[in-house]
Amino acid sequence: MELIARLSSVVLPMVILLAAAAALCRKTDVFAAFTAGARDGLGTVLQLIPTLCGLLCAVHMLRASGLFDALAALAAPLLNAVGIPSELAMLMLVRPFSGSGALAAGAELITAAGADSLAGRMAAVMLASSETTLYTVSVYFGAAGVRRSGKVLAAAFAAELTAFFVAAAAVQLLW
Known about the structure:
Layout: H1 2-26, H2 30-65, H3 67-81, H4 89-94, H5 99-113, H6 118-129, H7 133-144, H8 150-174
């Protein structure tokens, strides 16, 4: 373990030195290249801000309206029928939309049920094995200027649902 710590403390400086050496060999103005890259990055951020603001507002409104709570109550009997604790419904509903919202739902669940409970373990594995699908698609497609993403969203949500059920099955199988 100590070898890994020493190695990791050397890798980043070595990468920086190799990049500087390559820039010197090619006679590249590193500062100009850096500022050009930063300028391009700021342009991308400016393109994404409206998409992110709209998405974050929509997620907050859905949570505040109680829609997620109502959907979680509807999904609870179905989840119980397949062996998934109904407490995970909120996490499963929020995760595709908001990473921080899902983390908060998972933390609440683990605090209430316990980290070693079936629900706590499933929550942890589900958080680790799933993605904030809508956020990711909106950011990348917004940056690329893609407007028609219906089929991609359907496939992404199907993958998200698969991740949830496989995570639950893995926890039931291994613990």
